[in-house]
Amino acid sequence: MEKKELTAADVWAMFAETDRKMAETDRIMRENERKIAEGHRILDEKFDRLEKLFEDLGIERRENNRALNEKLAENDRKLTERFEALGIKVNEVKSNVVGIGHSNGEYAEEYFYNSLKKKMEFAGVHFDLINTDFRLLRKAPSGKRVEDQFDMVMINGEAAAIIEIKYKARENDPKQMVNQKVSNFRFLFPEYAKLKIYLGLGAFSFEKSVEQEAQELGIGLLKQVGETIEYETKWVRAY
Length: 239
Known about the structure:
- The longest helix is centred in the middle third of the chain and has 59 residues, at 61-119.
- Helix 1 (8-57) runs antiparallel to helix 2 and helix 3 packs across helix 4 (208-217).
- This protein has 2 domains: 8-109; 120-232, Trna Endonuclease, Chain: A, domain 1 (3-Layer(aba) Sandwich), CATH 3.40.1350.
- The two termini are 42 Å apart.
- The protein is of the alpha/beta class.
- 18% of the residues are buried.
- Strands 3-4-5-6-7-8 form a 6-stranded mixed β-sheet, sandwiched between helices. A two-stranded antiparallel ribbon has the order 1-2.
- It is elongated and about 85 Å long.
- It contains 4 helices and 8 strands.
- Helix content is 56%, strand content 25%.
């Protein structure tokens, strides 16, 4: 069966659903944290009342300590059982959050990839091939292990375009591309080391400072606008 190509409407529907799940996840985690804090508060109150009771009854300190320790051990056992049961839920919630984050990234990558594959062009340069998820680990002469992953790479005989895709582009994403991605790509893929490298950053939303930072560093932007992708590349430069 032919795979259905994602549209902007499809992607936003997915994000709306994951946003709803994230909101529910946040609510559950806040409620769990409240229950844990309440459990500690109740336990502390019980300990205070128990110590006062021993003092009022005039129980010897040695007997006091023995009984208190027994009570502490019992309460600790019960509270631990409750926290373990709660911990399973918390871990499941954390797992769901991670899964949602991965899903958002995959949706965004597929959406931008479909557009780039149709055009096979970036910043006015035509490319012959496009691949996703370039990933490699190599050991440098110094013994340091260098590992990196590149969301999309477009290549021709003279240049490569490294396109990073985010659900939301954040401050310092452009700087990281310049300071890390360019040098790592050339080291990890020496067959492409002499190519000119163009950089692009695609996202469904951008923090305020990102666009200005990208312009200053010569990084092209890919934005989702309605049902289409808008390319802002007039300031792009080669590295």
